[in-house]
Specification:
mainly alpha; single chain
């Protein structure tokens, strides 16, 4: 029996998993406070001046 379709689907599934894991890491890094350190708009809400 020819298993080439299952091989292609397996490769696509692995690529999909890799992309989702990579995107989760990037979104976690985006939400990190260290990422927002140089951002000035949040200081204006607290009443501080730059």
């Amino acid at each position: 029996m020819d298993y080439s379709i299952y091989t292609v689907l397996g490769i696509l599934f692995v690529v999909y998993l890799f992309i989702t894991i990579y995107n989760k890491r990037q979104s976690r890094r985006r939400r990190d406070k260290k990422f927002m350190d140089g951002y000035g708009r949040h200081r204006k809400k607290d009443g501080e001046k730059e």
